[in-house]
Structure formats: C-alpha cells, structure tokens
Design goal:
Length: 376
C-alpha cells in the first residue's frame, strides 16, 4: 500500500471540502452548533410543570391547611400552579388534563384541615400518565411537598395516573407504559427520516447526473417537475410508510389507539407532506447530495431533541422555546399523544393540525421560490 497515493487522495478530499462553503458549514460547524443547542436546551431538571389545584377545604377557625398546602405547591420550582379555588369540578379538571393544558390535578377535600389535625388527612392527585417523564416529575414533586405538611404520614396521597393502560388503579409501585409515550414521537421521526432524506436528494441528484438541464428543455415545466417529485414521495412512499407503521404499532407492538384512527392517519399524512416539502427545499438549495444529506440529518437531530418528544419544552430555556414551537414534530408529537393515548377529539388537536399546515405551506412556498431562481 503506497502511503504517497493515500496522501494524495486525502489531499484531494480536503481540497473538495474547502471549495464548498456550505459543505464546510455542515461538516465542521453544524455538529458543534447542534451539540451546543441541545446541551443548552437540557437544563437538567424538569421545571414549570402545569398543575391544577382545587381547594374545597373549609378550614378550622382561622386555620386552613388547604391554603397552606397550595402556597407550598406554588413555591416549588418544578410546578406551575393554577389555583381554581373550590369552583372547578374534578371531572372538568381531568378534562383539562386530557386536552393537554395541564399535567396534574391536586384535589383538597373540604375536611382536610380537620383530618390533618387528627393525623388522618388525604388528598386526591391525578397525573397525566401519557407522559411518564413529566408524570413522574409532577407526582414526585407533589408528594414531596405534601410530606412536609404536618407529622410524618399525616397526609395520605397516592397519585392516580390517567390514560395509561399499565397503571389502572394507582399503587405504590407504579410502572408507566413508556412505549405508549415513545411511539407517537417515534412514528413522526421515522416518517420524517424517510421522506426528508429521500426528497432531499431528488433535485440535487438530477443536477449531479446532468439530467436536470435536459428536463428543463423538455415539454415538462419546472412546476410540473417539482409537483411530480413531490406527489411521488407523498402518495407512494408516504402512504406506504404510514399504513405499514400503524399496522406494526397496532398489531405487533399492541399499542392501543384510544382516539379516532382516521384523525391519526390524517395528521400523519399532513406531516408526510410537510416532511417532503422540507426535503425538496433542502434539495433545491443544496449544491451536492452530500450537503443535502447532512442538512437533512442535522435538521432531524434538532427536531428530535427540541420538539418535546424527549424533554418537556416548558423546562427549556426561554431563548430556545420559539425554536421548539417552530418545529413540525412538536405539533405532531403533541397531537398524536392526545389522539393515541388520551383519546382527545378534533377540537383539542386542531391547533396542531393548523401548525403543521402552516409549516407545509411555508416549506412549499420557499421550495418553489428557490426552484424558480435556480431555473432562471
């Protein structure tokens, strides 16, 4: 093996790398930038979990331990307490959890103070079991605060985890079904990886093969070429992926879809269109297939870590939350979790549908704009 020839190959590759500013950025700068962003997003502790407190405690004279407990919950940096006093029924509070507005509910009964004075108090706690990470955090924080009230064991609390088939009646050894929480995000990541990666090479590959110019001088217009590429990926690859993935989830993984299956399918189909649009945009602006592939991979990495499917957006620094809310996977994960696990209706997830549609329109508008400039 000739070391001089190996050196010449390495030298050629380095020369090619530094000829492309875009390739320098995606190869040398982007990995460090993404690592910095992701590391900055994970603050270490989950904070600001939104919970409801319903306090019906009538107190004992001037003493009201229900208010004392509420104040202590409000001081916890892990919890973001919304106090409803005594006017919100428990079922309405559970519906707010089902709709994704809150992650837990604390109900303080009307005889709480009197029972606490006797050392026999109890509170009811309902936790969103569709998100085990946030569920464990909120329930642990609530139990910790409650245990500091009165003497040891004076207040009985056993969180009831909702929307999770592994739990049923709450117990001291709760095993939340992690798979049910992971699946909605995993489905989105799989579809995005498949369609974005494939469509990201569609235009740039034609240019590298030298067939792009031939297509432009043919009777096919630029818009028709772009639409043909898009429809192929969405109607063939996208539909096959969605149907096969849902089949695997339901039949082989035995994950029950509690909500409307057609709404789940429609949301995934819209997301497939959005992923294809983003991939086509990458393909239009990239100068090589390598550059397109790297942009697709790193953009997917950002989506996975900042979309809330791994780590709650509420616990991220304020600076990064606008980025998280600009990602389509954020809304897909939120919508699918609501439909598949909590059994929510269309009204609950309509904002997720709207966000995905807006993202899709923006991606296609940008793709058409840059494609037109390329043709010119």
């Amino acid at each position: 093996m000739n070391t001089e020839r190996i050196y010449l190959v390495i030298k050629k590759e380095i020369t090619l790398l530094f000829r492309s500013k875009g390739l320098i950025f995606t190869t040398l700068v982007l990995p460090c930038l993404i690592t910095l962003i992701v590391g900055f997003a994970f603050t270490g502790n989950i904070k600001n979990v939104p919970i409801i407190v319903i306090n019906e405690d009538k107190g004992h004279g001037d003493l009201n331990y229900g208010l004392v407990l509420t104040n202590q919950l409000e001081r916890s940096d892990q919890l973001d307490v919304k106090y409803f006093g005594n006017w919100l029924p428990i079922q309405n509070g559970i519906d707010l959890i089902r709709n994704g507005k809150y992650s837990a509910l604390v109900f303080i009964p009307q005889d709480f103070t009197n029972r606490l004075l006797l050392g026999k108090a109890y509170i009811q706690v309902y936790v969103d079991g569709s998100d085990p990470v946030v569920g464990y955090t909120s329930s642990s924080a609530i139990v910790t605060v409650v245990s500091q009230l009165g003497s040891k064991g004076a207040v009985y609390v056993s969180p009831d985890f909702l929307f999770n088939t592994n739990v049923g009646v709450a117990s001291s050894s709760i095993q939340l079904n992690q798979l049910r929480f992971v699946i909605p995000g995993q489905v989105g990541v799989t579809i995005a990886a498949s369609l974005t990666a494939l469509s990201a090479s569609t235009i740039v590959a034609e240019r590298e093969r030298g067939s792009f110019e031939q297509l432009l001088v043919s009777p096919i217009s630029g818009a028709e070429l772009l639409m043909g590429k898009i429809l192929y990926h969405v109607l063939l690859v996208g539909l096959v992926n969605i149907v096969s993935i849902l089949f695997v989830v339901i039949v082989f993984l035995d994950v029950q879809i509690v909500g409307n299956l057609m709404l789940v399918f429609l949301m995934l189909f819209l997301y497939a269109i959005a992923s294809t649009g983003f991939g086509v945009l990458i393909s239009v602006i990239s100068k090589s297939q390598i550059e397109a592939a790297e942009i697709a991979i790193f953009s997917l990495t950002i989506q996975v870590w900042l979309s809330g499917i791994v780590y709650p957006i509420r616990s991220m620094p304020l600076l990064l939350r606008p980025v998280a809310y600009a990602l389509p996977l954020t809304y897909l994960g939120d919508g699918l979790r609501a439909l598949m696990i909590r059994g929510s209706d269309f009204a609950t997830v309509q904002n997720d549908f709207i966000a995905i549609i807006i993202y899709t329109v923006v991606m296609y508008a940008l793709a058409v704009h840059f494609f037109s400039k390329r043709i010119d």
